[in-house]
Write a structure and sequence with these properties.
The protein has 2 domains: about 190 residues, Flavin prenyltransferase-like (Rossmann fold), CATH 3.40.50; about 220 residues, 3-Layer(aba) Sandwich (Rossmann fold). The protein has 14 helices and 20 strands. An 8-stranded mixed sheet has the order 13-12-9-14-17-18-19-20, with helices on both faces. A 5-stranded parallel sheet has the order 2-1-3-4-6, with helices on both faces. The chain has a 3-stranded antiparallel sheet with strand order 5-8-7. α1 links the parallel β1 and β2. α1 packs parallel to α3. The longest helix has 20 residues. It is globular and about 75 Å long.
Length: about 425
């Protein structure tokens, strides 16, 4: 009989369905957040197995963690070889090891190859088995900033361990939010799945992302709220599946992925020029027009900063910017083109209808549409939701999920249609 605590499994999504996660808990005060982390992982479909050390048990009881996960808690290593069963090269090993919270002491032991507790032994076994390992540090800021602690973190990163960076607040490196930790788990496992596929090897992919800006004067611009995160997620996904990938990225604070060739642009005209230059370099099998370029620009931008003291009112005459989608189709008619459609405050039916209208113009092969008025959807969020339509009147709904997971599902649809 299933443990009653597992009744919540999958209630918030299926991104982690079928995934087993070892949740290793070190003796930080932040361990009080562990039940919440475990439960949220379960709500996204995961099966969670907690591992603690004797010091941890002084901070948080094993009974509470068994209630949270619905699974027995590993409190010591016995003849059952719990560390091998969870993180070794056995058939039933977990898909990912999450250390949350991780103290400076635990991080130092792992970086030095010391395994003297169930927590460090399971973690060391996972590293040796090349399983995905995520660490969410929690400690006082001076401990986190200590040069040796930073060296230990850098050393573990070189081994392939990933970190969910803490939040520096009130002199403490506080454990990242539960939402951020869960998202990191989903992203890591999505990335692992993508890299295993390699179904775009030998293919070229071009992605546009982010906003563009149009100048009113040298210091003021017209723009929109796009962050570029969705396009970046698509570029990362395409690259992880083996594609030769180029990202045309508008202005903003987001950092482009180091593994992907990135061309930074500012205006819509610059984005168009950069896109056409890349297309002229050779055939691109897939093009994702995920950017949100400005639709209008001032017809006569001022050559100097407009003085607010002298000018109480300013009249702007706007003119349309070039339609990048149409230019892409004209320049590369054989590319499989995925367009994006953003609406605000419309019904799902109207959203899909708007997407089909783009298809009727013969400018795209797929249209991914979303409504940015909904919480967690689209601009400046870590998540997204899409309705993907094609010319065969087929509609596929990608439910709200981290953008990397949405990108994976969108690539699945495009690759299937491309028949690579």
């Amino acid at each position: 009989m299933a443990h009653p605590s597992k009744d919540i499994t999958g209630t918030s999504g299926t991104q982690l369905s079928g995934k087993k996660i070892a949740l290793l808990v070190s003796s930080s005060v932040a361990s009080f957040k562990v039940p919440e982390i475990a439960r949220e992982l379960m709500r996204h479909g995961a099966d969670v197995y907690a591992v603690i050390s004797p010091s941890t048990e002084k901070m948080i009881g094993s009974d509470l963690l068994e209630w949270a996960t619905g699974n027995p808690v590993v409190r010591e290593l016995t003849g059952k070889l719990e560390h091998i069963a969870l993180a070794g090269k056995s058939s039933g090993h977990v898909d990912l090891v999450l250390i949350a919270p991780a103290t400076a002491n635990t991080i130092g032991k792992l970086a030095s190859g010391i395994d003297d507790t169930p927590v460090t032994t399971v973690a060391a076994t996972a590293i040796g088995s090349k399983l995905p390992v995520l660490i969410a540090p929690a400690m006082h800021e001076p401990l986190y900033d200590h040069p040796i602690a930073q060296e230990n973190i850098a050393r573990l990163k070189r081994m392939g361990v990933e970190f969910v960076e803490p939040e520096i607040v009130e002199g403490k490196a506080k454990i990242a939010s539960t939402a951020k930790i869960v998202q990191a788990v989903i992203t890591r496992l999505s990335s692992q799945l993508s890299s295993q596929r390699r179904d775009l090897e030998g293919h070229r992919v071009l992605v546009t992302a982010g906003p563009t800006v149009e100048h009113i004067d040298p210091v003021r611009v017209i723009t929109n709220r796009s962050s570029g995160k969705m396009g970046i997620a698509i570029a990362e996904e395409a690259w992880s599946r083996g594609a030769e990938t180029t990202l045309i990225l508008g202005p903003g604070s987001v950092t482009p992925p180091p593994s992907v060739k990135t061309v930074r642009v500012e205006t819509t005209e610059e984005m168009l020029d950069a896109t056409l230059r890349e297309l002229k370099k050779g055939k691109h099998d897939l093009v994702f027009a995920a950017a949100a370029p400005s639709d209008y620009r001032p017809s006569k931008p001022a050559g100097h900063k407009i003085s607010t003291r002298k000018e109480k009112t300013v009249e702007l005459e706007l003119e349309a910017t070039p339609k990048i989608i149409r230019e892409i189709r004209h320049a590369s008619p054989n590319s499989f083109l995925v367009a994006f459609k953003t609406e605000h405050g419309v019904s799902n039916e109207q959203l899909v209808t708007e997407a089909f209208e783009i298809l009727s113009e013969k400018t795209a092969d797929l249209v991914a549409a979303n409504d940015v008025s909904l919480e967690g959807v689209g601009f400046q969020t870590e998540t997204n939701e899409l309705f993907v339509v094609d010319e065969r009147k087929k509609v596929i709904h990608i439910p709200l999920a981290p953008k990397r997971e949405v990108a994976r599902q969108l690539l699945d649809i495009a690759v299937k249609r491309l028949k690579v």
